[in-house]
Design brief:
Elements: H1 2-6, H2 9-17, H3 19-25, H4 34-44, H5 48-58, H6 63-71, H7 82-101, H8 115-119, H9 126-148, H10 152-155
Length: about 160
């Protein structure tokens, strides 16, 4: 759970440390790619993965958390906890789709580059089973999120 919450900690750190450069490399469009991480390295001198992992280590967070932060865009590189890293990577890809489109419609599990890495730790039918339920899962996440964080429109006018 914690790994999923803090995997992009480095993005926050980049924004705080150098907001001008952050705006150059980060469009905040939830359309993440390996190229974006490379661009961060070129423009800023490091990427959000390395910076976040370094910070996690400095703050004495568990090594499993630091590894997820470091490798969530390359889960196949994780050594100590590759399953957790791949799980966070898969979930991040799905969550980014929900952020961009506000619905699961149009999400293609085959577009998730991290799914094969996670599938290595599951039974042979994992990808097929997930593909059959992924839309339901994402719809449920969307409903739960909307119920937990209602928009101002949904709150009514009970505020004074």
């Amino acid at each position: 759970f914690t790994a999923g919450l803090v995997h992009d900690l480095g993005r926050t750190l980049l924004a705080v440390v150098d907001c001008d450069q952050f705006s150059v490399v980060e469009s905040l469009d939830f359309n993440e790619s390996r190229e974006q991480v490379v661009r961060e390295g070129i423009v800023v001198g490091t990427d959000h993965c390395c910076l976040g992992a370094w910070y996690a280590i400095q703050q004495q967070l568990p090594p499993q958390i630091a590894e997820v932060i470091l490798w969530h865009h390359q889960p196949e590189m994780a050594v100590e906890n590759p399953r957790l890293t791949a799980l966070v990577s898969v979930a991040d890809h799905m969550a980014n789709h929900l952020q961009r489109f506000n619905e699961s419609v149009g999400y293609d599990p085959a577009s998730n580059p991290y799914l094969p890495t996670l599938a290595k730790f599951a039974d042979p039918q994992f990808e097929k089973q997930l593909s059959g339920t992924i839309s339901l899962l994402m719809d449920r996440v969307q409903r739960d999120t909307q119920a937990s964080f209602p928009s101002k429109r949904n709150r009514g006018s009970s505020r004074t």
